[in-house]
Amino acid sequence: MKVIQNYINGRFVKGAREFADINPADGSVIAQVTEADRAMVDEAVAAARQALEGEWGRLTVPARAAVLNKIACGIDARFDEFLQAEVADTGKPVSLASKIDVPRGAANFRAFADIIKTAGGESFRTETPDGVTALNYTVRKPLGVVGIITPWNLPLLLLTWKVAPALACGNCVVAKPSEETPATATLLAEVVESSGVPAGVFNVVHGFGPDSAGEFLTTHPEVDAITFTGESRTGAAIMRSVAPSVKPVSFELGGKNAAIVFADCDFDDTMKGLSDSVFLNTGQVCLCAERVYVERSIFDRFLSALKREAENLRLGWPMHASTTMGPLISRDHREKVLSYYQLAKEEGATTVTGGGTPEFGDGRDNGYYVQPTILTGLPESSRCVKEEIFGPVCHVAPFDTEEEAIAKSNDTKYGLAASVWTSNLKRGHRVAGKLRAGITWVNCWFLRDLRTPFGGVGLSGIGREGGMHSLNFYSELSNICVKL
Ligand code: NAD
Ligand code: 6OH
Predict the structure, then answer these.
(1) Which residue's CA is the closest to the ligand 1 atom numbered 22?
(2) Ligand nearest to the CA of 455
(3) Taking burial as the number of CB atoms within 10 A of a residue's CB, which of 139, 343, 400, 440 is the most buried?
(4) Which residue's C-alpha comes closest to atom 8 of ligand 2?
(5) How far apart are CA 112 and CA 160, in angstroms?
(6) Best mutation site among 154, 181, 439 for ligand 2 pocket (most ligand atoms within 8 Å of CB)
(7) Is 286 a catalytic residue?
(8) Least distant ligand from the CA of 255
(9) How far is the CA of 149 from the centre of ligand 1 (A)?
(10) What is the pLDDT along the chain (484 residues), one digit of tens a residue?
């Protein structure tokens, strides 16, 4: 049986305990993962701190950027290994992982290599009333040791989204990937090592959250900052852990994203985009729409078309090229999603399609598949309309006026993403400007430029990453004031 190891201070090491890495398509064990105990997390943090003082700390920005580009090429060179590992761990269709997860993993390193090379600073010439003149200018210094905690839905993509800017800014990193999807983090460690990154600069510790590597990392006094992507509740727990030492945090958390469809939309394009926004990655993208508001005059037509899209999804083995929807990540997560399918019925929903589990008559029946599901008829106050489900499911409701659609979309404690579908671009701009979300797409979804700010409002997070916003989080910006 394959063993997935930790990577600490430039060595691949086993922990005292092991846990199973499960393939969600059929419940089989892919590998054993060795869990880092507290002493191993301590060792990783100490190695990272020491590496700050070594060769890494002395590298120039162009040299660091060259290392990032080398890591990107290293991912490209082992593309198939990354692809197979990611598909096996997550169950996502190979067509999706080969288009988004793995290329985006490499792209994150290339993007931040470019961004750090071209980033300028601020400067101000100061003139006081009593005739003193001074020059102020900013310099970026590394934060130090950055703890990175990532989820299972886009494991490589969301890890590299944080590792790349952290390294670009000269930090050292201890990363704790999700216990559900450990494989590509250890593969990344192999690529980082072969790219000439000194020992201790990048470390991977495997394990769980509470009482395990996640908590050991977030409570560690020698970690200078924590960046986390995951559930809002976990973010709250991590906030409590870091509070005593007042560390900077960057949180990308959950969502209950709305889509607003106007009658004047390009119907076919909207249907394609909207269907992706609900079902892509089995609905397990933080940006997925779970609330769809449709102008009443096209409501029935829209619902029938979305039902057709859902029923045309091909639930298959993840490695088959024709598969368009894989399983959910785990047995527990399937129970959670199915409990919402049940709750929807109790709350009075009409289940337009789905609502249960598919039957295959083969090994996939031991996996964690659920039917893509469309609900309608729920009051806005119901739990299925308010709580993040994180599965291939949405609730569709009609609206009569633009104001009503905006008010309903904004009636949430979350605020990560939204989308607006209309051929009237004036309205598109207007509505987008009124939605309370970190990102609003008009006539598209999940079209992301790595230079743009990314993050959420309310329960969806704290701070922004992306482009210069990432540099601002992963570095200490210091002002130098020189009297002239
Ligand atoms: P999760 O919060 O359960 O776990 C995320 C990570 O945190 C894992 O590595 C886990 O081991 C670790 N963890 C759990 N408890 C911890 C603790 N007490 N201390 C330290 N670490 C701890 O999230 P998940 O189930 O892996 O991912 C799904 C969630 O992530 C959804 O809510 C989704 O919306 C959110 N998400 C948000 C974004 C975003 O950018 N806003 C992106 C992807 C996923
Ligand atoms: C959240 O689940 C996904 C975020 C992905 C990105 O922001 C991206 O641009 O790759």
Answers:
(1) 209
(2) 1
(3) 440
(4) 448
(5) 10
(6) 154
(7) yes
(8) 1
(9) 8
(10) 999 999 999 999 999 899 999 999 999 999 999 999 999 999 999 999 999 999 999 999 999 999 999 999 999 999 999 999 999 999 999 999 999 999 999 999 999 999 999 999 999 999 999 999 999 999 999 999 999 999 999 999 999 999 999 999 999 999 999 999 999 999 999 999 999 999 999 999 999 999 999 999 999 999 999 999 999 999 999 999 999 999 999 999 999 999 999 999 999 999 999 999 999 999 999 999 999 999 999 999 999 999 999 999 999 999 999 999 999 999 999 999 999 999 999 999 999 999 999 999 999 999 999 999 999 999 999 999 999 999 999 999 999 999 999 999 999 999 999 999 999 999 999 999 999 999 999 999 999 999 999 999 999 999 999 999 999 999 999 999 999 9
Residue with CA nearest ligand 2 atom 6: 448
- Residue whose tokens read 């940006």: 287
In this structure, which amino acid lies at residue 424? N
Which atom, in ligand 1's list, is nearest to the CA of 210? 18
Neighbours of 434 (CB within 10 A): 15
459 and 414 Cβ atoms separated by less than 8 Å: yes
Residue given tokens 């003139």 in the structure block? 127
Nearest to 334 by CA among 354, 357, 351: 357
